[in-house]
Amino acid sequence: MTTLTVKDLLPEDGTRGTLVGRVWLPQVNGPAVVAVRGDGVFDVTARFPTISALCEEDNPAKALAAAKGERIGDLEAIVANTVPDGRDPKKPWLLAPVDLQTLKAAGVTFAISMLERVIEERAKGNPASAEAIRKEVTRLIGDDLSKLKPGSDQAMHLKQVLIDQNAWSQYLEVGIGPDAEVFTKAPTLSSVGTGMDAGLHPKSTWNNPEPELVLFVSSRGKIVGGALGNDVNLRDFEGRSALLLSKAKDNNASCSIGPLLRLFDDSFTLDDARKLDISLNVTGTDGFVLDGHSSISKISRDPTDLVEQTIGKVHQYPDGFVLFLGTMFAPVKDRDAPGQGFTHKRDDIVTISAPELGKLVNRMRTSDECEPWTFGIGALMKSLAQRKLI
């Protein structure tokens, strides 16, 4: 990954929608909340100190449109300066479009990825065993559970049948049972954005990208917009034990969100998000190419149900949260040898795209090779205070 252009960033309808981002401003040594418009990138931090604050507005899209802001440059130049290699530290660059929100993720929300989780569990993290187990699992429960409503009488009947056959799994429990799996993906402010390196634990030998829709939710539980996400996953770690989920999911640079937040307005609504088609491309320096496709319309739990299971009287998020909705795409294409399936190699370029949301592009490195995460909540508060924005 040597270059990044506006074509690699914007939705197909350009700047027609309400697009929000974060940009690092070297002159103030801190981030700015920006509106991305047809005539440039505008700093609106004086009105909205954080993305979280913007999402708390009654109508975030309308509030952003009313904020004139200060133009800080052309989008093309800022995008081009985002890639770590060759970045000019004296010029602005893009960040992940999320700040104080808690980073949450829902798992096992698509039938295909649910089956792969069962396979991981039975393979104990060994990719060589996965193909034989995949055939047996499919024989037992089939490969199309997309019409099965989680928690329904039909789902509970299937659960009992599988228990009787000693084929039940904790992943099936959250996949077709009444309670969704929702976990904390990573610490607040740790996300990487488009153009940056995404991280894999250096001890992982079986891992994969997870292209997902990321919803932005206010502290009141209102869904206000969406972005693309890569919920980078270590299949070997989680396959050995579900108790290793935190190590499988939360590593330096393992949470990628971007390229921009698109707020809901007349051009993009929650119903549009429900029908979103997400594409995945992985291109390796070894010539390997993987293409995949995921449709949110095939999700087993409605996005509003997942949000309601995340926030409420038993759990509050004063700064709001973002929610990865899960992926239906678990890559199984053989890369090195028959039956070995897919795993990342160093310098893989992962592109996750949707016509309505643009492209999220990351180069894969081990987490210890990625840029260290040093700018946390305390640093953000100090930076905003020094600029007299809070």
TrEMBL record:
Coiled coil: none annotated. InterPro entries: FAH (IPR051121), Fumarylacetoacetase-like_C (IPR011234), Fumarylacetoacetase_C_sf (IPR036663). It holds the Pfam family FAA_hydrolase. One of its GO terms (biological process) is small molecule metabolic process. GO terms for molecular function: hydrolase activity; metal ion binding. Keywords: Hydrolase, Metal-binding. Residues 223-364 form the Fumarylacetoacetase-like C-terminal domain. Belongs to the FAH family. This is Fumarylacetoacetate (FAA) hydrolase family protein. It comes from Bradyrhizobium stylosanthis.
